[in-house]
Amino acid sequence: MKFRRKQPEEVSVNLTPLIDVVFLLLIFFMVSTTFTKETHLEINLPEAEGEIVESQTDSIEVTISVEGDFSVNGQVLLNSQPDTLRRAIMDQAGDDRKLPFVISADANTPHQSVVTVMDVAGKLGFAGLSITTQQAAEE
Question: How far apart are CA 9 and CA 112, in angstroms?
Fold first, then answer.
């Protein structure tokens, strides 16, 4: 008696379901990711003429938006109260009051916001205050 040998079945992996799952995961992560710019304040600096000075790496920079919102070294504060600003500056500066203190205010910022920052800095003992400007546009 002659037995027929079984032909071995060809083993294959179907990649279509794997590709579908990866594609669905990609779509899910693209849709669920949010792109927000919450930590940046948009400011339009006032114009002035003078020499351009390089800013130092170790400094305290307070940014004031057009609405009067404060940001200390890139960290937006919850409110515009002087106590909140004072605590944020103290966290950034520690005990070093000789750090350069830079104020970057929008050209249309209420004057009171700039005065508040200067007052808080003065009460904390910072003496080297500077205000950031941009070069005047040549006509």
Answer: 83
